[in-house]
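Q: Protein A?
A:
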Amino acid sequence: MVHPYRSHNCGALTKGDVGQTVRLSGWVHRKRDHGGVLFVDLRDHYGITQIVADEDSPALALLDALRVESVVTIDGEVKARSEATVNPNLATGEIEVFARSVEVQSRAEELPMPVAGEQEYPEDIRLKYRFLDLRRETLHKNIVTRTKIISDMRRRMEGAGFTEYSTPILTASSPEGARDFLVPSRIHAGKFYALPQAPQQYKQLLMVAGFDRYFQIAPCFRDEDPRADRLPGEFYQLDLEMSFVTQEEIWETMEPVIAGVFETFAEGRHVTPSGSFPRIPYAESMLKYGTDKPDLRNPLIISDVGRHFEQSGFGLFEKIVGSGGVVRVIPAPNTADKSRKFFDDMNNWARSEGFAGLGYVTRKGGEFGGPIAKNHGPERMEELYNELGLGPDDGLFFAAGKETDAAKLAGAARIRVGEELDLIAKDRFELAWIVDFPFYEWDEDEKKVEFSHNPFSMPQGGIEALEEHDPLTIKAYQYDLVCNGYEIASGSIRNHMPDTMVKAFELVGLSKQDVEDRFGGLYRAFQYGAPPHGGMAAGVDRIVMLLCGAVNLREITLFPMNQRAEDLLMGAPSPAELRQLRELHLRIVEPPKPQG
């Protein structure tokens, strides 16, 4: 008995099927009328098959009248294409199907956006008609790749001895640093659940409960403003936790998993091999790259040259260094052939980014140029260049000021110079651990010490460090995994000691009672025998984005929101009915209207 819709899918037929009578179903992808002969590309999830109808085919008139994206079932005969018309880019490119009959399953109206082709189209249309957008080749392929990557992650985690456990979605508010999505309780008037920003406390409780190696492809919810590498609302992470481990063991366990996933989907691009991920201290990363998520494909290294300007004819730098500031430099190799405009454009770019400016020195055939070199003097510039290992045709950019500002400018300038000079190797995935993060940081707005990363981390030196050292000098057993300028994972060894936990929170102004009130479940659990434990979470969305070569997370996500956190397809968020509000004991309080 013949299947009512298909004997084969649209990616299956080959030259070995020539002569067969087949049945195919799919979408009319493209149509080409060659004067009495109609060629139709029929598409389904698996591929495209070329359908041919001529004046001898009863299917011609019906196919000719249909709009593209209509769904049809076609019966026909498989024929070999002539050698001149073989399409090597299609799996089915050696054959075509001569249509004997056609049945229309669903007619398409005029399309609000094209499906065939990859042309740019307004985002609001793409999101409102996402079901059409998802038919487009690149996006469709990206989504399939995403599912394969997640499947590969699961297989590798299970192979490493981890077991997947599901943690609750309705939970309590957590201190992850972002706004919670709150869910009102109907049963408990005036009280709210929160959607989890991460399964952090639950996975630690699993370790206390004795499960040892946990992982989960976990949905996480944060009410944050969207950006290109972070979706509004929700995202997914490969979440994991291990008991009785050091941070080195976590790195050694996860490097084969992450490197393996990248190698499987890198399509020949270089991946940093497992076992050789560099381990870069946070302070070193901030100095050399101006960021804690460096792109190591870029060979440029930032240096601190403040000591060269403690006594200098260039008074601005001498004054900055004398008042506690820094001078950082970014090489611009082999720029002797660049005009002064290249350097001036870089300075103008820095100003457009909100900085005071980006100083520079030019050099051609050993001759220095620019105000900094003129005032500092050729002999001192030669000494500086020799220390940096720079050549006679290398330029140099300068970022000077307060350390935080200078590091930020130098980091951004390093990226821009690398891009402008085409120094970044595009066909590589360079992975590295950033380690030894500061446990605390100074909040200039609040004028107080705050956690710089994860408040549940173990401080290096334990409770003694918290009691005896300046908080801003304490490092944590915290680490990030970075790739090509993106943070793709973050983790730590956890603070499983109740007294140490209380002391850590006291230094940011929270009392023991606050700890018990906010993190009561975790704090109580630590009273009853908690193993040393640690873990990390890797961003599934960012990993998929990198491997697919996408520049925006919406290009690897099924049904994303727009930049205003709106779901244009389903119409969310939407007003609640009065009946629903009454059931939840809620009243809408309108925001105050602007004055004037």
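Q: Protein B?
A:
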Amino acid sequence: MPSEPSAPFFPKLFKEVPLQALLVVPFVVQTVGAVGIIGYLSFRNGQKAVNDVAAQLRNETSDRIAQNLTHLVATPFQAFESYEAALRQNRIDLNNGRDIEKFLWRQLPAFGNLSLTAFVTSNQEFFGAERQDGAIAIRTSEVENNRALTTYRTNSTGDRLEVINAGKPNFDPRKRPYYKIPVQQRQATWGKVFPHITGKTMYIAPGKPIYNSAGELQGVWMASLNLSMIGDFLRSLKIGTTGQSFILERSGEMIATSTGEKPFRYDADKVVQLPEQRVERLNAIDSKNSTTQKTSQFLLEKFQDFHQIQTFQQLEFSIKGERQFVQVAPFRDGKGIDWLVIVTVPESDFMAQIKANTQSTILLSLLALGISLGIGILTTHWITQPILQLNQASSAMAAGTLSQAVTESSVYELQELTQSFNRMAQQLQESFKTLEQANEQLEHRVEERTAELKATKDEVEMALRELQRTQTQLIQSEKMSSLGQLVAGVAHEINNPVNFIYGNLGHADQYTQELLKLVQAYQTHYPEPPPAIAQQSKAMDLDFMVNDLSKLIESMKEGARRIREIVLALRTFSRLDEAEVKSINIHDGIDSTLIILGNRLKPKPNHPGIEILRNYGSLPLVECYPGPLNQVFMNILSNAIDAIEIAIEQGKQITPAISIHTGLIDESRAQIRIGDNGSGIPEAIKQRIFDPFFTTKPVGSGTGMGLAISYQIVTDRHQGTLSCRSQSGEGTEFVIQIPLKQKLRH
């Protein structure tokens, strides 16, 4: 006789639980839980998207600021190079103050970012040219005027007219930072920020000391920048909706800000002799702008000192409960500038749409809950009604004669029910055995299917990686195509006027010489000219013009020739946009790339110039895609320059050089080898250099796609090979092998 079944577990916890509740409550709980999880994940994904967008916005803004600053702070040193060239050509007499000021007056329009440029002599004299109200004025402090800093209005040729402003006597520019610091360091370098003599703005200027052949100091060139230009640029940037940016010195003093706040304070009531003494630098933590002040305080609390921030930082903090995204990027030019570029964006600029989406999600969740509850009630009613009817019938049988018939009477229906129950139990046991076997087979099939799905997943992941690589390559190709079109257009537009200028310089030189001969003949026959002619000759400084004119024309010829070389290089390199196979001279593509990279090959204060060793063999014209192949040269040469700069920064004693060898392997293939004498590549890294997105450069300095794209261009588009030979500490060489002629694939 079967044993009496044990009592179920749930009645121990709940004495009476309606079946309808057991069906409806879990259904509702599952629905609420699923909707809640989806809503939470949606909100978290929104926040992650905000973080990503904010990081991208901060990166782009910092990059734009760094690019503008790089261009801006390079302008004074470009001016110094121009002045040095004039000295070498004997176009300036440093012992003649009028000669110096007129030269600077003529040179200042060529450097639009400069506000004031001057030469300070070692005996306390000052000769300079300054932009004032759309014109260029002369500003001097000479022995003749008791060294009072005096400003003159000028005529169209740079001659002095009336005095605009005369300062107090005995002005000593040698006490200014643009003189003291370069003289102490004996090289061109930046001075400290200083106020303009009017006290209405702030300047920063580098100086370059000039020594004679005996090593004696003759004076210092200076060229100043107005800090308001940096502030104007920062205000022009669109940083989200309410984002801000500002630039600090390591001392915490402001350089510029996008809020329009001046980086200094001017106390008009302060009793001093000079207006510039009323100026006081503004510290960022004392800013009237709340965001600027709070951000600076946060950075000081986190790093204790602004000098501790030596690397790129992306941080977060809160102002009155509102999260702020902050990015700090050091900016250095290698000549004395060491600033911090700070970009801050509030989270509220991005959260409005996310909050709206969250509200919509909550409303939809409530609607889904109501619908689920209604469906659950209808479903449980449909299930429980037949069970209640069966229960009523069973209760009637248990209370009547049928129960007795089961044990005592021979009622046919009860006997059939008992036999059916016993047969059912036996069938269930057999069914369970069959089910176990089927379960084993099912588990085996599940394992096989799981393995198939895993293999499919690996294929999908591989396809996604390939798609991502292709997408990045397409973007890079589009960028390079646009660059090629832009460079070709610029080269074409520059080439026509340059050819016109260069072609006419010879005629201008010939005509000038003829006119000078005529003047000399006139002076020979009329040594005593009329007073009017003699006065005009003296006013225009005829002797100086005769000596300087030939030098000017030669300088113009040299400049025009240099521009033509650069235009030719740009036109050669602009083949980036050519999409068809063409027969080209490989050496032209390499040379044009080297010209474009010429600025990176020049000597710098912290390391010497990089020598290019060309070992060109005899190569026929090669059928290839010129643009993509030039892109390969650009990537490999840029990496070679990076490797040499890193080796020098690490203290390796080398003579920087890049060697380029070309030649034929056989009658059907050409080989190009580009090597550097940097620190080399470790074996573990060398095995991955052609992998997409692999890079050892700092964040923001490389995408990891340069060599991967170069490998694809050489191997896929040109059916060639690209390999790397390198040992740690012994330099690196990339070897390109491509066929001379074959049917290339698009």
